[in-house]
Design a protein that fits this description.
It comes from Durusdinium trenchii. The protein is of the alpha+beta class and about 1300 residues long.
Length: about 1300
């Protein structure tokens, strides 16, 4: 519509008062327009579909996202306005206003359409861009004067819709595209959306106004004509443009709008460019008809050259950012009234690739120059426009325009548009800035400077002088705001250049000192590595020795088994009647072996003897006996040359009863009856009588004689064995008189004197024991032993006066060989009177047997078999072993003790295998010591060394083992066994001023104190290393380093002050001199040092024993009673106590070691491959990461439960009985379990736990120190509900309390 006619209608409409609905609708449009720049994240403050706001096209698209909602809202507006009866439905209303009568529409036919039939899809707006400022004016005009009556719009079909589809016959909304009047169509749609938004807010009578009804009808019944599509899309677009200009009788579209239209035209055909599209447009007949006037006059719709140049500049010489900027600006104000307009569009030097409108060139005499050494950049004084400069320029034009027209009406704003002459300097300033921005970014905030340049003339003066002077190159110092800063930077640079030499010298010295520190550290690390090499080599050697012991143990077990089967066989029988079979087998074995041995050697058949030895090794005793029988028959070996010596001792436990006496007599009879003239029996009579014997020993002897006489055995030949007590300890006189002896020692002396139980027989002068020779009655006169033996004829051994009885600590107490059985909780086990009488020493038995085998006028022509029926601890077997090894020279002449004396122990009095294990252990020790030779087996006493490939895995091993001359150091030098800093380095750094003097002296002092003597302990004077002298390893490889961190234990200034807080209930003296143990009423434990002399303080080392838990027993962990949990919290690094007296007879020490060291010490001294430990599963580590160590697992989860001692005086031995929890929580004391070595079973058996110090303590005289609790006060503990876990590891350690579910 022509502008004048449109304005006239609007004014006439405003002369009449507007209905309330139209007035609100006009305000709603203005409100929506004010939200044109809103973003989705700004929040929704209007009804759907406006919501947060946006452009009109965005709101229209948002409305059509819910077509049903939009149609329903329009239906409600019509019904509220009275255009639809109340009983009508939505479908009826759609049929009346939303469905076309002619479908598909016939081209050229006029038919009414509804605004709801028009699609607001972007493709429908054929101009491409719809400025909101223009749409707003049209929308407000429609709101107050409706669609003009009789006005017709051109429409076209959506090319993506198939009109024959059945669904479009029923639903014809959002289908038709605009062919012209797209801005008017969008404005009409906004009015309908506005009425829908106002419908819930206004009364029905407001909508039933005739003007409102006319407005609604004009929106729902619009005369429309379907346009016939042209031959091509390009022709269709040109026809639309021509139609638009024909209706306007001029060119109402700006050059920017034409640029958008022509850009859309060029997009319709790839072959059509701008010039071609312009030629087609100007050459169209409809355009030619409108050019009867001059090309620039009114009424012409032809594009002239000036406007074409402007359009081309917008299209081809404008960056996308500028196009977007100009496009968005038209939402606020129309193009012709805005900051740009046609006047600026026709200025060519505002667009890309243009140069300065004023010819500029570099000025050789410019007064601007860069500072010395300052960075510069060349300036292109053509000042070619770039995309970066163009967007800044257009932003500046818009910013200046907005500032100038902030209070000016829209119609008058174009008067304040910048003139081209005013933009020349601004343009050149901005282009110059874009050239030098890259250099300025390094010295200033370029983003802030550019923002100020684009928003106004705040920084124009900074570049104005440069444009006037026009230097060849630009420097940042040319900017007035940066000149002072750049001068300071230049001065600093000049100063840096002047001091460069000094700085380099200082840096060189610093670098040299840093190298010294780094090199010194590397050398010290190497020394530390070398210092640890002996320990690692020792650990490797132990691993090699452990493997070697395993091999030797397997070989030794076979060797000892063969030797004992041949010479020292021990067998147990259940009943006395069962001794015949084992006895005959052993005798047959001995006879056959001796016979074959003698015959083969006498015949010179050495090869057969070697084969015989190999067979004896490979076969079991029973199979070997069969083999021997076949060989005996082959070599005609006699079977009646054996001599039998039967032995029984009535002092062993359970042997003196009448039943056992009768059994022993029967056993004697069974053994001696065959070839009785060559056999004899030895019976040791009791040394003390039973309490039930009224006449003392007379009753005992009478019972024995009766039993033997009943078996027709003669006991008339007596013998005595004189002895004396061991002189160690107290003097011999005290032992004889009993003066100064304890009751127990006096009792032992009395027992040893054979008069302990019967006062009538007690005599301090008696120093002998008595026995009888036993032979069958019928062969008393013909027995060779009765007639020729020294023991029979003399009645006593003649080669020595007396035999010394063993010391009490040398006595053996039988126990189980299992490490977890027969645990002895006492510190020193005391033997019973029966055990004392049964062990009178191996030397006594040796003297008796030597005297028995010393014959006059008789030579043994066969082997002698000694049969023992009272094995007990096998003192007799050990005596035979001594006779074969250590006492060979003192044996009777003419008797081959090594090969002719055999020993068979047939015990039936006890079920324990302790005696047999003891005998086997003694044979093994003698074989390993080289004192016993076993054919076919030889013990390798020298362990193998570490293989070279294993040594290579230890860093520094080649230096330690191959010679310290291979040691290469950087700043250190070896001076003998000391390693010191090179003298030149010391001299140089001490000549430096104090800058490095103090730090160097600190480094030197640290080296002298910690590293200078690292090699002293591992080097001999000759400069080599002896691996045998490597120190024993305290901890396993890989164990964490112990750091004795003394906790801040609480102390009191006196005991009186302590008792005010916690009254003392128990006070005992600890095992450490002058250190007392206190227990408070709350359960707290305190240490108090009370010296007898003037001593202010006492240093208590770690691992110092303070006391124990008293008597008790081991129970399962499930037992609810409190106790000390048996647990190895740190594996083989856990602290334990070890009784060295069980390992060394002459030692009485109790040592606190790690479990690792205890096992290694036992392996080393006892040459064992494995050491079983009570309740533990210990295996040696086999991984390469740890050179030596043990994997420790608790096989049986046990705890030690202290017993309550009623009416017993408390002492340090049992002080901690009721304080298991406090000990487990303390940081300064801890529990450790004591172990002892069991010689026979070759294992470690646990005894009891004790309490030792965890860290070194400093006790001040008279100041009680509390064993600080880590958890909670002891008064809150319920010992029946808690089970405390603790770690037996020294140093800083954590202890935890595990609370059961009942707590």
């Amino acid at each position: 519509m022509p502008p004048k006619k449109k304005a006239r209608v609007a004014r006439s409409a405003l002369e009449e008062p507007l209905p309330l609905v139209q007035s609100h609708l006009d305000q709603w449009l203005q409100t929506v327009y004010s939200k044109r720049h809103a973003k989705p994240d700004d929040g929704d403050d209007m009804d759907w579909p406006v919501l947060h706001g946006g452009t009109f096209m965005e709101i229209a698209a948002r409305a059509w996202e819910s077509p049903e909602r939009l149609v329903t809202a329009a239906f409600k507006v019509c019904r509220k306005a009275g255009l639809v009866p109340d009983h009508s439905s939505l479908e009826d209303w759609q049929g009346q206003f939303c469905r076309l009568e002619d479908w598909p529409p016939t081209p050229g036919k006029i038919s009414p359409t509804s605004i709801l039939n028009w699609s607001m899809h972007p493709a429908s707006f054929w101009r491409g861009f719809v400025p909101m400022s223009e749409v707003l004016g049209i929308a407000r005009s429609i709101a107050v004067s409706r669609f003009r009556e009789g006005e017709m719009l051109s429409i076209r079909m959506n090319p993506d819709i198939d009109a024959s589809d059945e669904q479009f016959k029923q639903h014809q909304v959002n289908l038709l595209f605009f062919d012209d009047g797209s801005q008017k169509g969008l404005a009409a749609f906004l009015n309908l959306v506005g009425l829908a938004s106002l419908e819930p807010k206004l009364a029905p009578e407001e909508f039933q106004d005739s003007k409102v009804q006319a407005l609604l009808v004009s929106l729902l019944q619009i005369p429309s004509i379907m346009k016939q599509e042209a031959n091509s899309a390009l022709d269709s677009q040109i026809l639309r443009i021509i139609k638009q200009n024909q209706d306007a009788q001029a060119q109402p579209v700006s050059s920017f709008g034409w640029a958008l239209l022509l850009r859309s035209m060029t997009g319709l055909s790839e072959e059509v460019g701008f010039d071609e599209a312009l030629r087609i447009y100007n050459g169209h007949p409809s355009v030619q008809q409108m050019t009867d006037k001059d090309s620039a006059g009114g009424g012409s719709i032809k594009i002239d050259n000036r406007k074409a140049a402007a359009i081309k500049s917008w299209m081809e010489r404008c960056s996308p950012a500028v196009l977007s900027l100009v496009e968005v600006s038209q939402h606020d104000i129309p193009f012709n009234a805005g900051p740009f307009g046609e006047s600026l569009a026709m200025v060519p030097w505002l667009f890309l690739d243009s140069t300065s409108p004023v010819a500029l060139s570099a000025n050789a005499g410019s007064g601007l120059a860069a500072l010395d050494g300052e960075a510069v950049v060349s300036v292109d004084w053509l000042l070619t426009m770039t995309p970066e400069a163009q967007i800044i320029l257009f932003e500046r034009i818009q910013s200046d325009f907005n500032s100038a027209t902030a209070l000016v009406e829209v119609r008058a704003k174009k008067k304040y548009r910048a003139a081209p002459a005013d933009l020349v300097d601004i343009r050149n300033t901005i282009v110059l800035w874009t050239q030098v921005r890259g250099l300025c970014e390094h010295s200033m905030d370029a983003n802030d400077f550019q923002q100020k340049l684009a928003s106004g003339n705040l920084v124009d003066d900074q570049i104005a002088e440069i444009l006037v002077q026009r230097p060849n190159s630009f420097a940042v110092s040319m900017l007035p705001s940066q000149r002072a800063q750049m001068q300071k930077a230049a001065e600093a640079k000049e100063q840096a250049v002047c001091s460069e030499v000094e700085t380099q010298r200082v840096e060189l010295r610093n670098a040299r000192f840093q190298f010294l520190k780094a090199a010194l550290l590397r050398d010290q690390v190497q020394l530390q590595r070398l210092e640890a090499v002996p320990t690692k080599l020792a650990a490797l050697q132990r691993r090699v020795e452990a493997k070697w012991r395993e091999e030797e143990a397997y070989k030794g077990e076979r060797a000892v088994q063969q030797y004992c089967n041949k010479y020292l066989r021990v067998e147990r029988v259940d009943k006395i009647e069962f001794i015949v079979g084992p006895f005959r087998d052993f005798v047959t074995f001995v006879v056959l072996w001796r016979g074959l041995f003698c015959n083969i050697l006498s015949g010179g058949r050495g090869t057969q003897f070697y084969v015989l030895c190999q067979v004896s090794v490979s076969l079991e005793p029973a199979l070997f006996s069969i083999y021997m029988a076949s060989q005996a028959k082959l070599h005609n070996v006699p079977l009646d040359r054996v001599h039998i010596v039967a032995y029984c001792d009535f002092n062993v436990p359970n042997a003196a009863s009448r039943t056992r006496t009768q059994d022993l007599a029967k056993a004697m009879h069974m053994v001696l009856q065959h070839n009785a003239s060559r056999n004899v029996g030895l019976a040791d009579f009791p040394d003390a009588a039973k309490a039930s014997s009224k006449r003392g020993l007379a009753d005992e002897e009478a019972d024995i004689q009766t039993a033997f006489w009943s078996m027709k055995l003669n006991l008339d030949n007596r013998f005595v064995l004189p002895f004396d007590l061991h002189p160690s300890g107290e003097s011999l006189a005290k032992r004889r008189t009993g003066v100064g002896l304890s009751s127990f020692d006096f009792a032992f002396t009395s027992i040893a004197c054979l008069s302990v139980m019967i006062c009538d027989d007690f005599s301090l002068e008696r120093r002998w024991s008595m026995g009888r020779l036993v032979v069958p009655n019928e062969l008393v006169d013909d027995n060779v032993f009765l007639n020729c033996s020294e023991l029979s004829t003399a009645g006593r051994p003649m080669y020595a006066d007396k035999v010394l009885l063993p010391r009490q600590r040398d006595l053996v107490l039988p126990e189980s060989t299992d490490a977890s059985s027969d645990l002895r909780l006492a510190e020193r086990a005391r033997p019973s009177p029966e055990q004392l009488r049964a062990q009178k020493g191996r030397s006594r038995v040796t003297a008796m047997l030597r005297s028995l085998l010393t014959m006059s006028e008789y030579t043994f022509d066969g082997p002698v078999v000694l049969v023992n029926f009272t094995g007990y601890v096998e003192d007799v077997g050990l005596s035979v072993l001594d006779m074969k090894t250590t006492c060979v020279d003192s044996m009777p002449a003419g008797f081959d003790v090594k090969n002719k004396l055999h020993y068979l122990s047939l015990h039936f009095l006890e079920s324990s295998d302790f005696g047999q294990m003891r005998l086997f252990r003694e044979v093994t020790e003698l074989w390993m010591d080289g004192k016993l030779k076993i054919p076919g087996f030889e013990f390798c006493s020298e362990p193998p060394s570490v293989p070279p490939d294993e040594l290579a895995k230890v860093p520094g091993a080649d230096i330690v083992t191959g010679g310290f001359d291979k040691l290469t150091l950087e700043v250190l030098v070896r001076d003998g066994s000391r390693v010191v800093l090179k003298p030149d380095e010391v001299k140089f750094w001490r000549s430096i001023p104090d800058a490095f003097g103090q730090e160097f002296e600190t480094l030197l002092k640290n080296h002298e104190s910690r590293y200078a003597s690292c090699l002293t302990t591992i080097m001999k004077p000759g400069g080599s290393f002896n691996q045998a002298e490597a120190p024993d390893q305290e901890e396993p490889q890989g164990a964490p380093e112990r750091k004795d961190v003394v906790p801040a234990a609480k102390e009191w200034e006196s005991r009186e002050i302590l008792e005010k807080e916690d009254p003392i209930e128990d006070h005992v003296v600890s095992e450490l001199a002058n250190v007392h143990l206190l227990r408070g009423k709350s359960g707290g434990i305190y240490l108090l040092f009370e010296p007898k002399e003037e001593q202010k303080e006492k240093i208590v080392p770690k691992k110092t024993q303070l006391g124990g838990f008293g008597t008790g027993s081991y129970a399962k962990v499930e037992d609810p009673q409190p106790g000390v949990l048996f647990e190895m919290g740190k594996g083989d690094a856990t602290w334990v106590q070890f009784d060295e007296s069980s390992l060394k007879a002459d030692s009485t020490n109790i040592e606190t070691w790690s479990l690792y060291k205890m096992i290694v010490q036992i392996e080393k001294q006892k040459r064992l491959a494995r050491v079983p430990v009570s309740f533990l599963k210990v295996t040696r580590k086999s991984d390469d990461k740890s050179l030596d160590g043990f994997e420790v697992q608790v096989a049986q989860k046990m705890k030690y439960q202290p017993h309550e001692a009623k009416n017993a005086k408390n002492s340090c031995k049992s002080f901690f009985r009721g304080s298991c929890d406090q000990v487990a929580q303390s940081e300064i004391i801890q529990s450790v379990f004591r172990f002892r070595y069991e010689q026979v079973g070759t294992n470690c058996k646990v005894q009891k736990p004790y309490v030792v110090t965890s860290v070194p303590l400093k006790l001040v005289a008279g100041h009680p120190m509390k064993a600080r609790s880590l958890c909670f006060p002891c008064s809150r503990l319920n010992l029946g509900k808690l089970l405390f876990r603790f770690s037996s590891f020294g140093g800083s350690r954590m202890k935890t309390a595990r609370v059961t579910s009942e707590c």
